[in-house]
Design brief:
Elements lengths: L2 H13 L4 H11 L12 H16 L8 H12 L4 E3 L3 H4 L3 H10 L6 E3 L8
Parallel strand pairs: 1-2
Helix pairs in contact: 1-2, 3-4
């Protein structure tokens, strides 16, 4: 699990409104059973992720207020994970050709975002 996702879950489990607070708490509780582990990245890779996130915003591939989505894409790519499972519309609806060009421009590993999941699975 990308570091930004882990941070988001922690924040939502404490400060989120309902139902996000409940879902985030449940997800954090179930991570081990789901065999999900948070991976870490070096400071250099975190800086690269931030630069990639800014580029996606500049290209208007993600809205400025969804900056964390760009970090999630970059962190996943930098960890050489090829598939990101998400229910986030900003990530699922991104222009795939423009995203591929952005990954190529940044010498990043292309990843695919797929599998719209429902909150009921949490």
């Amino acid at each position: 699990m990308p570091p930004t996702v882990a941070a988001e879950l922690n924040v939502l489990s404490i400060y989120g409104g309902e139902p996000q607070k409940t879902f985030a708490s449940q997800a954090l509780h179930e991570l081990r059973a789901w065999k999900c582990q948070t991976f870490s990245l070096s400071d250099t890779k975190l800086a690269i992720a931030e630069r990639f996130r800014r580029r996606l915003s500049e290209l208007q591939l993600i809205p400025e207020e969804a900056w964390d989505d760009g970090l999630i894409l970059a962190e996943t790519s930098l960890a050489s994970i090829l598939l990101l499972v998400t229910s986030d519309a900003h990530l699922l609806d991104i222009d795939e050709d423009a995203l591929l060009l952005s990954f190529n421009e940044a010498d990043g590993q292309r990843i695919a975002c797929c599998a719209r999941i429902s909150n009921s699975l949490l």
